[in-house]
Backbone:
């Protein structure tokens, strides 16, 4: 390894783990992050893709959580305007469910619990006169519009890891931490790569950010006892052909007091979710159930004129949320807040319980502060004002950036230019460096996927498989013909993997 002993070992490459590694590395700590699979390969790429305060949590009186999340919305939006953008949500009023005064009161709190600089306030609307009312059944005449933020969740994770690496962190994928033992006041960690080969590293402190595996990791890999528990809750989503042409999203109320979102997705689709079901299976392989598909079809069918069935589902995904266990009877009512548990008899081990993608930056800051006190290191807060890689756009405007990109690369097809701009922001120049035509991008391995981009993802973003590239680094998998993943894996094996001995470490240094 690069060092005899790291300041911090982070176990887990989801949003919390990568956020923690980024925060600590930016404070000047030596950091190693170990992820057993790919970055964002589980819960962190299976969200509803929203940075939001959680409007429905107000009804559960979780005011502190909502305020904290609302404060983070604009902090995150300013840090990465290429992978996040404001989204206006329409709430059609169903007079059989919540009364108008209750929705007005909730939106008033949502607007005022935290300061807003970038996002507009909520408003009432006549759906008979609004473009968002056109796809709805005619019985929905009144509604409300409020603001939240869309995010490409998997890219948020990868860019956080990229920023950590650029601040000196070592990022290892395909590295499972199988055992932690204390030796001479430090942790000795055994890491297993995908072949089962072992390597040993030492660290002054360890943060367990393994998400759904947090309790299992403590039981099976450490000498300590967990002080808390997580409640595993499965959330599933379906993707169907586009149900509306405009850019608004919808929040639909249900008689069971839950809500379902319908979001514009990848230009040609609508994303519908989510469910909340207690889960007892393997967190690595959740699957959507037939009853969930029916539920996610039935809810929008109550509101939209155009009806959908399971035959319309083009893709689905499920994730397991590791929620902080509380007394809630219903899985949808479990708190989305987090708790940090630290055990530090000789060397600190901090475990992360719960959390949500919206508060990941604040969670990371809190976690590193807790460890810093044990290591007697100064508290240095820096991420609230920092850009994520690619986020430093001209005037902070994505539209201005895309126009500048069109002038700089007039030969780049508009669809490809827009996708690159969204995924890489101002790192697009690094991706395209030296290219003066489409031919300069190398072989077109799949439609709109060129050799140049694959090599960039391999070198700078830890991508090693077709799934990494087509479903996490991008959503190209939705737009490609059957067999594309197999074709790409064959290409990767032929062109890249044959020379990738020690892949994880090579990527960390790239």
Residues:
């Amino acid at each position: 390894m690069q060092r005899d002993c790291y300041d911090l070992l982070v176990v887990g490459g989801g949003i919390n783990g990568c956020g923690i590694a980024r925060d600590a590395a930016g404070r000047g700590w030596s950091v190693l992050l170990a992820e057993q699979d790919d970055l964002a390969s589980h819960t962190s790429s299976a969200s509803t893709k929203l940075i939001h305060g959680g409007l429905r949590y107000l009804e559960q009186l979780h005011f502190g959580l909502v305020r904290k999340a609302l404060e983070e919305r604009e902090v995150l939006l300013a840090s990465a305007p290429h992978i996040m953008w404001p989204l206006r949500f329409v709430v059609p009023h169903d007079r059989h469910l919540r009364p108008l005064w209750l929705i007005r009161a909730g939106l008033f709190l949502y607007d005022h619990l935290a300061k807003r600089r970038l996002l507009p306030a909520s408003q009432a609307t006549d759906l008979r006169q609004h473009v968002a009312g056109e796809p709805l059944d005619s019985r929905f005449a009144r509604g409300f519009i409020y603001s939240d933020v869309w995010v490409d969740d998997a890219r948020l994770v990868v860019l956080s890891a990229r920023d950590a690496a650029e601040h000196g962190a070592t990022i290892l994928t395909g590295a499972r931490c199988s055992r932690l033992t204390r030796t001479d006041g430090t942790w000795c960690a055994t890491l297993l790569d995908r072949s089962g080969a072992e390597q040993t590293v030492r660290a002054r402190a360890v943060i367990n950010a393994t998400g759904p595996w947090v309790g299992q990791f403590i039981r099976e890999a450490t000498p300590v006892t967990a002080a808390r528990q997580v409640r595993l809750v499965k959330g599933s989503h379906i993707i169907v052909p586009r149900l509306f042409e405009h850019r608004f999203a919808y929040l639909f109320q249900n008689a069971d007091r839950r809500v379902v979102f319908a979001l514009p997705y990848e230009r040609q689709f609508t994303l519908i979710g989510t469910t909340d079901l207690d889960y007892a299976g393997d967190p690595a392989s959740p699957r959507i159930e037939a009853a969930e598909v029916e539920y996610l079809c039935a809810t929008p069918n109550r509101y939209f004129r155009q009806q959908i069935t399971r035959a319309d589902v083009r893709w689905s995904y499920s994730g397991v949320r590791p929620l902080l266990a509380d007394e809630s009877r219903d899985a949808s009512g479990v708190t989305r807040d987090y708790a940090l548990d630290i055990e530090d008899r000789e060397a600190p081990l901090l475990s992360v319980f719960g959390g949500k993608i919206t508060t990941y930056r604040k969670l990371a800051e809190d976690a590193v502060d807790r460890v810093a006190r044990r290591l007697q290191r100064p508290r240095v807060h820096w991420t609230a004002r920092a850009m994520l890689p690619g986020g430093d756009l001209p005037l902070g405007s994505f539209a201005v950036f895309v126009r500048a990109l069109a002038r700089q690369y007039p030969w780049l097809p508009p669809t490809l230019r827009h996708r690159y701009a969204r995924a890489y922001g101002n790192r697009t120049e690094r991706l395209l460096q030296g290219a003066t035509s489409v031919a300069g991008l190398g072989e077109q391995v799949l439609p709109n996927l060129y050799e140049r981009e694959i090599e960039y993802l391999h070198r700078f973003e830890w991508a090693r498989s077709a799934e990494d590239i087509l479903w996490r680094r991008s959503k190209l998998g939705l737009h490609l013909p059957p067999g594309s993943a197999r074709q790409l894996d064959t290409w990767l094996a032929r062109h890249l993997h044959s020379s990738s001995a020690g892949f994880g470490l090579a990527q960390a240094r790239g």
Q: What stands out?
A: The longest helix spans residues 63-79. The domain at 6-43+154-229+335-385 is CATH 3.50.50.60 (FAD/NAD(P)-binding domain). Confidence is low (pLDDT under 50) at residues 498-510. The two ends are 15 Å apart (CA to CA).
